Amino acid sequence: MNVSEALAILKDAGYKYTDKREVILNYFANEDRYRTAKDLLTHMEPSFEGISFDTIYRNLHLFDQLGILESTELAGEKHYQMRCMHHHHHHFICKVCGVTKEIQSCPMEDLSDELKHFMIDDHKFEIYGRCPACIS
């Protein structure tokens, strides 16, 4: 997802455009990894003096609920990244730096027989470890 698509989702859902929201969206659009609320706060503080964690968390929660961001939990803390929209895939996520790598195969294909009498609404598959840069 890009910033224009995200802003359109916000507008369609009845939410206002704000400078802070655009900065948040640009931050995640330019990151190729999962980031924390603290990372975002550190990024925004120089431009928005006095910005609070409450403002950060409220917007992260909204963007997650609207499907603009996706979230995962690493080391007991929620991390976010811009939602991938263009094709179905899953992720390897580095537990050290948060970098992601797309995984094209989907384990749901192997589970269809086991779940044939169940109605599946959605699924999420993530693999956690360390990326090559964090192994060294």
TrEMBL record:
Protein localization: Cytoplasm
InterPro entries according to UniProt: FUR (IPR002481), Fur_C (IPR043135), WH-like_DNA-bd_sf (IPR036388), WH_DNA-bd_sf (IPR036390)
Cofactor: how bound: Binds 1 zinc ion per subunit.
GO (cellular component) term, any one: cytoplasm
Any one GO molecular-function label of the UniProt entry: zinc ion binding
Cross-referenced SUPFAM superfamilies: Winged helix' DNA-binding domain
Residue numbers binding Zn(2+): C94, C97, C131, C134
Cofactor(s) the protein needs: Zn(2+); Mn(2+); Fe(2+)
Annotated binding of Fe cation, by residue: H88, E109, H123
Keywords: Cytoplasm, DNA-binding, Iron, Metal-binding, Repressor, Transcription, Transcription regulation, Zinc
GO biological processes: negative regulation of DNA-templated transcription; regulation of secondary metabolite biosynthetic process
Family: Belongs to the Fur family.
PANTHER family assigned to the protein according to its UniProt record, in alphabetical order: FERRIC UPTAKE REGULATION PROTEIN, ZINC UPTAKE REGULATION PROTEIN
Name by which UniProt lists this protein: Fur family transcriptional regulator
Species of origin: Natronobacillus azotifigens
